[in-house]
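User: Can you help me understand a structure? I only have the sequence.
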Amino acid sequence: MAGSLRKSSKRRAMSDINVVPYIDVMLVLLVIFMVTAPMVNPGVVNLPTVGGAKVQSLPPVFLSIDANENVIVRKDGEPVQTLNKFELGAFARSQAEKSAEQPVVLAADKSIKYEVVMEVMSKLKENGVKRVGLAVKSQ
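Assistant: Let's start by predicting it. Here is the structure, written out as C-alpha cells:
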C-alpha cells in the first residue's frame, strides 16, 4: 500500500505562468516613477521682449489669400486690389521698386493648403520683397 501512495502523489509540471515576479517589478517601477515625476522640471523658455523694438517707419502692406486662392491687397483694412498668381510677381516688383524695406504681412484662410502660402511667399521674395511676415489670429 505504501507503494501505491507514492505513485499517486507525483507532482505534475505546472502549465501556468507565474506572474508574481512581473507584478512586483511593475509595482517597484510605478513607485520609482511616482517619486521622480514631480522632481523633473520642464524646460523654461526665455521669450524676447518687445520694449526695444523699432517703430515701423513704413506701414506694412497686408496681403490676404482667400479660399479661392486669390490674393487681396489691403491698405488700412480695406481691399484695394485682387490679384491672381500671375499678377502677383508684377505687384511684388512694383512694391520692391517703391521701397525694398516696406514689410508685407501675409494672411491666409485656414482652409488653404500650406503649399499655396509658401508659393506666394517665394514669389514675393523672388521679386525683391525683403521683409515678409505671417499674420495669425490671437485666441
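Now, to help you interpret it: Residues 38 and 101 are 49 Å apart (CA to CA). The mean pLDDT is 80. Let me know which part you'd like to focus on.
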